[in-house]
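Methods — Computational structure assignment.
A single polypeptide chain was analysed. Its primary sequence is given first, followed by the predicted tertiary structure written as structure tokens.
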Amino acid sequence: MAGHSKWANIQHRKGRQDEKRQRVWTRVMREIMVAARMGGGDMGTNPRLRLAAEKAKAANMPLENVKYGIAKATGSLEGVHYEEVRYEGYGIGGAAIIVDCMTDNKVRTVAEVRHAFAKFGGHMGTEGSVAFQFKHCGQLIFAPGTSEDKLMEVALDAGADDVITHDDGAIEVLTPYAHFEVIKHALEAAGLKAEFAEVTMRADNMIELSGGEAATMQKFLDVLEDLDDTQDVFHNAALAE
């Protein structure tokens, strides 16, 4: 899309995560605890826990913290029990938004999310009201300059769904969410390391926002991401530079 840079948006997101490392640790710890509680504390048989542990490693979280979170969630230690909850709605320009949270108090969390939507002129919808516009999948973003031919060959051979080259040179690899780890490791074994890799909710179609709308939408997204109980925010707004 004109004015929309996949790479710039990814770099902005990474920059915000780096600025708030302690908050990243908190979110990763919650993910570790929920994954361990739901699927057990053995990473060999719990792929969600393995992904959470990889996030912890990428955020430079000490291994002791990871082990503590697993022990806490599996009953070895007493602790707060978190549950997953998803909120959906619309923001500036009708952009669809999904907010995934982990909370020990759903009343508090929904009030905070609803307040953020209202503050920026958005509105929350019912469960499933926008999720149908997104695909649950694995996503890997490679920096401009990465060999497109090599990446496409390795990715498709490993079982990727698609390889997309964006106008700014960034290359995006989409995978079935269940095969994300296998494909990621195959790419790394071939010397292709993604700058950004996660299981995500990817929008089927984007809504272009520019000028004041883009600036306001970015502030809205920042507020949602800064809420204590937020784990992830997904949206279909393409924010022009």
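Note: The helical segments are 6-19, 21-39, 47-58, 63-73, 106-119, 148-158, 180-189, 211-226.
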